[in-house]
Amino acid sequence: MKKHNFYAGPSILSQYTIKNTAEAVIDFANTGLSILEISHRSKEFQAVIDEASALVKELLEVPEGYSVLFLGGGASLQFCMVPFNLLAKKAAYLETGTWAVNAIKEARIFGEVDVVASSKDANFTYIPKGFVVPADVDYFHYTSNNTIYGTEIRRDPDVPVRMVADMSSDIFSRPIDVAKYDVIYAGAQKNLAPAGVTIAIVRDDAMGHVDRLIPTMLDYRTHIKKGSMFNTPPVLPIFSALQTLRYYKELGGVKELERRDLEKAHKLYDAIDDSRMFVGTVTDPADRSIMNVCFVMKPEYKDLEKDFVDFCSTKGIVGIKGHRSVGGFRASLYNALPMESVDVLIDAMKEFQANH
Ligand SMILES: *Cc1c(COP(=O)(O)O)cnc(C)c1O
C-alpha cells in the first residue's frame, strides 16, 4: 500500500533525494566507491559541499558577508552555540514552545535572559503579539515554526538588535530576508535531509564580540574558516541535502515551495474547520503553521481519537499522532509531501466522520 508520511521529523524526503542517496551508497560520482567510504577531503565530496553551500545561498538569496555551515549536533547544539558565541551580557528570547524553552535554558548558562513574551499560559497555541525587544540586549532569538504546537511566524521580525532564529522546521518554505539575521539555524531532518546535519547561516562579523574562551568545535569562526571541514562533517546527510536543494531549485525555488505549502495547508485547515468532529488547536489563522497542522477531536468525540489513528493506518497514513504534550493529531506537511497525501487524509477524516 502506498504510504502517506506525516511524521514530524525525521520526516518525508523527496523520492529524488532518496533514490540519488541510495545510488550514491552503492557508487558515488562514478568513483567505484560508496559515499559511505570516501574521504571527506576527496575532490568529489568537496564538490558536494561546495554546491550545497552555493545552492543554500542561491535559494535563500543569502547576501555577501555570510557563511553557510554544515554542522553536527542537531539544532539542540545550536541552543548552546548561539549564546556561547553571541551572548556577552543579556539576550532576549521569545518563548513559543518546547524548543524555545530548551534554547532559553541553555542561554541562561551564559548570561541574563529576558523572555520578552510567552504563550505558555495557553499551552503555546498562539504567537504572542506586541512584545518589545529592548535595545540593550546582545540579540533576540525566536523559533520561526513551533513544530510541536503548530504555530508559525511567517514574517521576519524587525528588531533593534542582532537576530537569531531556529528555523528547523520551516526553512525553505518561504523567502527569508537573511540580511535581518545574524544566525539562522536548522536541523536538516524536517525539510531537507536525513538526521545528522544542521545548517547554520551566520553573519561572519557577528562573531568575536564576547570575551569568553570558546571551545574550538563550538566556535562558529572555526567552521567559517575551515568551510565546515575542520573535522569530518556528516558526509551522507550533506550529500542528501544537496539532492534536496537541487530538487528545490528544479521545482522553482522557495517562492514556488511556499505556494505549494500554502495550498496544502489551507486545504487541510479548511477541512478541519468545516468538520463537526475535528477542531484545530491553533484558532487564529494568522498563527497557524503551514508545516505542522495540529488538531484534536471535539469533546463529544474525544474517545475516538485512538480509533482514528488506527483507521488512518488502514489508508496508509502514518505519523499522524500528535505530540504527547498536545495530544490529538499532527499532520506535518513538509515540502516533500505531495497534495495527494493531503487529499487522502481529508478523505479519511470525512469517511471516519460519516461512520460515527
Ligand atoms: C526538531 C526541532 C529541534 C530539535 O532538533 P534536533 O536536531 O533534534 O536537536 C529544534 N527546534 C525545532 C524548531 C525543531 O523542530
Summarize the model shown.
This protein has 356 residues and is an alpha/beta fold.
Word description of this protein:
The protein has 356 residues and is of the alpha/beta class. Helix content is 35%, strand content 17%. The chain is built from 9 helices and 14 strands. The strands form 4 sheets. The protein has a 7-stranded mixed sheet, sandwiched between helices. Strands 11-12-14 form a 3-stranded antiparallel sheet, with helices on one face. The chain has a two-stranded parallel ribbon with strand order 1-13. A hairpin with a 4-residue loop joins strand 6 and strand 7 (151-152). The longest helix has 22 residues, at 253-274. The protein is globular and about 60 Å long. Pyridoxal-5'-phosphate (PLP) is lined by residues 9, 74-76, 99, 143, 147, 166, 168-169, 187, 190.
| Sequence of strands across the biggest β-sheet | 2-10-9-8-5-3-4
- Major beta sheet, specifics? 7 strands, mixed
Bound molecules: pyridoxal-5'-phosphate
Q: What would the principal axes of the Cα set say about the shape?
A: globular
| Helical residue percent band | 25-40%
* Secondary-structure element series: EHHEHEHEEEEEEEHHHEEHEEH
Number of helices: 9
**Quaternary assembly:** single chain
Blueprint (SSEs and pairs):
Elements: E1 4-5, H1 15-26, H2 43-59, E2 66-71, H3 74-86, E3 90-95, H4 98-107, E4 112-118, E5 139-143, E6 145-146, E7 151-152, E8 162-166, E9 183-187, E10 198-203, H5 220-225, H6 235-251, H7 253-274, E11 278-280, E12 292-297, H8 305-314, E13 317-318, E14 329-332, H9 339-355
Parallel strand pairs: 1-13, 3-4, 3-5, 5-8, 8-9
Antiparallel strand pairs: 2-10, 6-7, 9-10, 11-12, 12-14
